[in-house]
Amino acid sequence: MLLFDRCGPSLLRYVSSFGLRPEEAEDVVQDVFLSLFRHLRLGRSRSHLRGWLFRVAHNLALKQRTSLQKRQANRSWDDIALSQHADPSPDPESRLADNQRRRRLTSVLHALPERDRRCIVLRAEGLRYREIAAALGISLGSVAKSLTRSITRLVNVYER
Amino acid sequence: MAHFIHHPSDEVLLRAIDGEHSPRRLTILERHLADCESCRDRRQALRSARDEFLHACRDDLAARTPACDRLRERVQVGVTTLSRELGGSSWSRFVQRVAVPRAALVGATIVAIVAVAAVLRHRPELPAADDVLVAVEPGALPVRSLTPGATRRVPLDELCGARELGERPISQAVRQAVLRDYRMEEVPAHEYELDYLITPELGGSGDRRNLWPERYGARIWNARVKDELEQLLPQLVCRGEVDLATAQREIAANWIAAYKKYFHTDEPVRTSGGALPNRPPLPTLVSFVTRTAAIESRPW
């Protein structure tokens, strides 16, 4: 599968996870691909492009969010939030159980440090540990520890 | 034969679930799991929590994220426009990578051409499109939308006077802004020179719109060649052979085309020490220091 089709939707989801509005997220992803274009034109490395794309997206999204936060002090920034979607299930008991499960997930996710949340979201987008490390500028070992910390925390919540 | 002395940690189990172990290490782990029911249970618990966590994250973000159709279109138009501004031909290679449908590419190219034509029509001070779209090495010309050129109001006799104009370093804030514009904040300083598009000797200002990071990497149309034009044009202006506004406009629109026009050549004239063949000595106004610290290591 080629690069845009492989990475465009994932990048858009990842950038959206910073709490950016759809049009703001699209601006960022467009800039990411323009940066890629310049990167390729300059004859720079073509290896590990997915990690490179997510790293640029991460940096630009952070910058965009910081800039918007300064200008829009009153805006709510729900970073990554597992919102309560309308459940198509007609069964009230199933709906209740699903909502409880989702609330539990949300509470665990919100309790995580920012870096751990980023690792989870990038893993959810299918990135390998090496790519997550490249995107966030941390070591591969840190990625493994971060993911383990988050998943273990969720297991402990379930076991309680 | 290697074995786990203790029970494997959660991290080891999770790495195995995520396929992040070497085959050898995985074999050792599987051997342990075959004999250890508690570790198998732990692995299953981690796998279930991981799957639920990742699926919930993905589903939630997917529900809150718009479809990519509009984005794809925007990227196509943006890259097409940028490609034309940079004057290169790498677009086709990029298209191969991003899998843009051919029909969509044709449409986007038409849109970009119409957009560029509209801009040119409403900016009569610019030269013809043919002059603008000279195919050159990547980075040899600035991006027009970022660096259209800017001038300050200064009398001609002051520009052509024999006095020293003094040093005018570029402020750190402006430098950072320009590098940000070109997404070159992380490029090492020795790889480029922050250059004026319209040289100060022609009344170019220190405005962000008149500065661009000119890469040393260009083999033919590089910063040194532009310096030759920057020396020649003020001479022609001060001798009254070229109008100041014309010189400003031409160097801003496409300095390579201007070089070819005034040096009557299709390729750079190699001169030593910046002296121009069959030309009188330069006026003293060239002492204007406009370069970044990186110029010290410029690889001629």
Entry keywords:
heterodimer; A: Arc Repressor Mutant, subunit A; 7 helices; B: about 300 residues; mainly alpha; two-stranded antiparallel ribbon; 12 helices; elongated; disordered C terminus
Describe the structure in brief.
The complex is a heterodimer of chains A (160) and B (300). Chain A has 160 residues and is an all-alpha fold.
In sequence order, what are the helices and strands of chain B, one letter per element? HHHHHHHHHEEHHH
Largest sheet of chain B: 2 strands, antiparallel
Terminal residue distance of chain B: 61 Å
Report the top-level CATH class of the largest domain in chain A.
Mainly Alpha
Q: Give the strand tally of chain B.
A: 2
Poorly predicted runs of chain A = none
C-alpha Rg of chain A (nearest Å): 18 Å
How much of the residues of chain B is beta strand, in percent?
Answer: under 5%
Count, helices of chain A: 7
- Cα-based radius of gyration of chain B, to the nearest Å: 29 Å
The chain pair with the largest interface is:
A-B, 56 and 50 residues
How many DSSP E strands of chain A? 0
Contiguous low-pLDDT stretches of chain B (5 residues minimum) are: 119-136, 271-300
Mean pLDDT metric of chain B: 72
Instruction: Bin the helical content of chain A.
Output: over 70%
Order of strands across the biggest sheet of chain B?
1-2
- Shape, per Cα inertia axes of chain A: globular
**Rounded mean pLDDT score of chain A:** 83
